[in-house]
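Appendix B. One record, verbatim.
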Amino acid sequence: MTLVPARLLMLRDVAALRRAGFAVAWNIELRRTAASEVSFGRECSMARYSILHVEGGRLHLGDRVSFGVGNYVAAAESQITVGSGVLFSPFVSLIALNHQIDALGVPLWAESDHSRSGISIGDDCWLATRSIVLPGVTLGNRCVVGAGAVVTKSFPDGTRLAGVPARAIPPGSEHPRRHADNGRSGGDVAGNDGAGTDDRPLSDRHAG
């Protein structure tokens, strides 16, 4: 029996996604099993050095979903759903499962129970550089997550988020400027990229 190196198996799975129309870079890290489910719409992409783990889990993407450089998408044994027209800047993390830490007397590294509450992100959202979304979070349509924010709870449509843990930012408030550039988009900590003066979807305004 010939043993196939793990790297070759991963390249086979990457090639299968590319043939199906998901424009993933060749050097992403992809882990999936026969029980994994990955579905996606038109014009979806994932940039280099990203990590996609869907062992026994499900990833569902709408149309025009763009993952930036170095994104970490962890849907193993859980589920991540992303709507259409969603932009992920570099080094964004979507973590759809987590270790439980409630068992007394059990070392944390040995705790095998997990939270599998998943993540759901609506249409026309932008997650800026190094933002993190944790299990159980639902973001409504047209949400903007500021650079470095850690989202631990759900927010409704049209919310702008910043901070650790992330909190809603009132419209029109002033914030220190931060760069959140994935080659097509930039803005401040609250994602103020002119969304208030342009009604087009974010994916259209940052295309090209």
